[in-house]
Amino acid sequence: MPRLLCTIVFLFSLPAFAADNFGPRLEGFDYPFPIEQFQMESQGQQLEMAYMDIQPETPNGQTVLLMHGKNFCAATWEGTIHFLTDNGYRVIAADQIGFCKSSKPEHYQFSFHQLSSNTSALLEHLAIESYIIMGHSMGGMLATRHALLNPEKVEQLVMVNPIGLEDWLAKGVPYRTIDDWYQNELKTNADSIRQYQQNTYYAGSWEPGYDRWVKMQAGMFNGSGKEIVAWNSALTYDMVITQPVFYEFENLQVPTLLLIGEKDNTAVGKNMAPEDKRAELGNYPKISLEVADRIPDATLVTFEDLGHSPQIQDPERFHQTLIEHLLKR
Length: 329
Fold this sequence. Notes:
- By secondary structure, this protein is of the alpha/beta class.
- Helix content is 39%, strand content 16%.
- An 8-stranded mixed beta sheet has the order 1-2-4-3-5-6-7-8, with helices on both faces.
């Protein structure tokens, strides 16, 4: 009896949000569709880019390329992939180099131009010549850069709560060195991820279904190889904050759809900004409207009650809105 009592006490003393231990390339975390590895040479080294290539049962002849965010992976597009393939679209969802199931090089010059080039190499490998591109969060910055570089191939650009609708350094966020980012990222755990997402992405609300994506991200920081995960995260944070696409929205030559959850208040480095500047950062109702006015052929659709990931918060409403606008083109 005492032994049983000790066991019960131990179980109840576990942390409220325990993370799994995944490898640096998300070993042990299952994706919703089969993963393939694109072998590529970049910056003098052999790398692997993980991707899912999902074919519809009844093809409509169109392809959608999905780009994940900084704290997300290709797997987080799961519901959107099901929806798009059910509607006849072929879907390519890749993990960018430095993220999730793809290679995490120790030495790499990360840039949105480089990630765009990597993606172009994958599409060439798959013999895909034209496509719709949809990017979420950081993926919106990358998708914008890719559309600027490949206007003849991109049929339509869709941005889902993209970061980069403002220049944070210009708005008062202080520069943080890569070494400082690295030390900060080493502290990442499931509780800190969950708290950040709850406060920043979902305006204080939370649903049990979100926990899977927290555990996915936290598992890389909690397992073997967490140092290389933290290092790549630091390198890509530097890329995000020092390479704004903010000044080039006027140059977009493709039809652009902005799908914005207005409860979002994401802004990289906001916690480091002077207190009097913080309220100005991540104001999505304001900055999305300003950017939409600057894009030559833009449509802005807002969800006033949703946050950073409307495709996860309210997939039915989000996907219905998405397909209506895709079919208009």
